[in-house]
Each structure stands twice: as C-alpha cells, then as structure tokens.
C-alpha cells in the first residue's frame, strides 16, 4: 500500500526518478522511504490510506507507525509485528 501511495502521489521522470526504498531498521521497523515530489494535479483520492494503516496498528495494540515528511523525502516506519 505504501509503494502504491508513492507511485500515485509523486512525479517521476528520467531527470527526477521516483526512488522507493524498502528495508528493515535495527530498531525493528519496516521502513518505506521515497523521494517526495508531489504531483501538480493531484489524483482523486479517498485520503484514508495512511489513516487506515495507523488505525490497524492501534486496533491491534501495537505502537503507531511513524510518518516523516521532509522537503525531498517521505518516510513511513512500521513496527514489525
């Protein structure tokens, strides 16, 4: 779902390719990181993707995922369960 979100919401080109990195951290998290270059014309979106992921972790009693956005990166850290 996070990879799909990265593709859906970011520009990509030969000059500025969309880079997506998926890995586990030493802290026991699944990390999905992508370059952040938002689309100018945003696609139709229900806006519940990240909210849904956070709610699922909360329902199961796990720590909340961490979402970080910088000027050029979008990073989501999901606790491994």
Shape: globular
- For the residues shown, what is the average pLDDT? 92
Task: Tell me the distance between the termini.
Answer: 17 Å
Largest sheet: 4 strands, antiparallel
Computed CA radius of gyration, to the nearest angstrom? 13 Å
Instruction: Bin the helical content.
Output: 10-25%
Summarize the structure.
With 81 residues, the protein is α+β, with helices and mostly antiparallel strands.
Would you write up a description of this structure?
With 81 residues, the protein is α+β, with helices and mostly antiparallel strands. The chain is 25% helix and 28% strand. It contains two helices and four strands; from the N terminus they run αββαββ. It has helices at 2-9, 49-60; strands at 20-24, 29-35, 66-69, 73-79. It has a four-stranded antiparallel β-sheet, with helices on one face. Strand 1 and strand 2 (29-35) form a beta hairpin. The longest helix is centred in the C-terminal third of the chain and has 12 residues, at 49-60. The chain is globular, with a radius of gyration of 13 Å. The two termini are 17 Å apart.
